[in-house]
Predict the structure of Cadherin domain-containing protein.
Amino acid sequence: MIKPNLTTCVLFEAYVYEGSTGVVVNLTVDDRDDPDTGAGRAIYSIVNGDPTLSFEIQTNPDNNEGMLSVIKPLDYEAERFHTLLIKVENEDPLVPDVGYGPSSTATVHVTVLDINEGPVFFPDPLTVNKMENIPLGSFVASLNATDPDILQTQSIR
């Protein structure tokens, strides 16, 4: 039984727009065992870099690739880069005294791309109570809006 090796690439890069979900990168593995056995089927896991559980990785049964997905939308303004450590191992355990470890690892750098988000009012909704027939030009309310795109120059009108 041969341990699965992530291809010679031990660093993968992915780009994802903030607010989106889905597969962002496929990790390839080289395992020379019979793919129709547990010795040839890969099991992927995220071992570091995902404290908010925003990602998941599943094995594609057709080609044994690891499909890394965003499952909770990411926020560019909160965190622009994520570095994940991915482990792959055989579904079946290695035979005893094989002479090498049972798994391989790779790093995935995920870059979050900014999208233009509209401003939001605070509080939302705003309730205003005024007497009927107040004079024209009377103060009614003060509205506050902020734009979450703090790194872009914005103009709120």
Observations:
- Residues 5-113 form a domain with the Immunoglobulin-like fold (CATH 2.60.40.60).
- The chain is about 0% helix and 40% strand.
- The first strand starts at residue 5 and ends at 6.
- The chain has a mean pLDDT of 81.
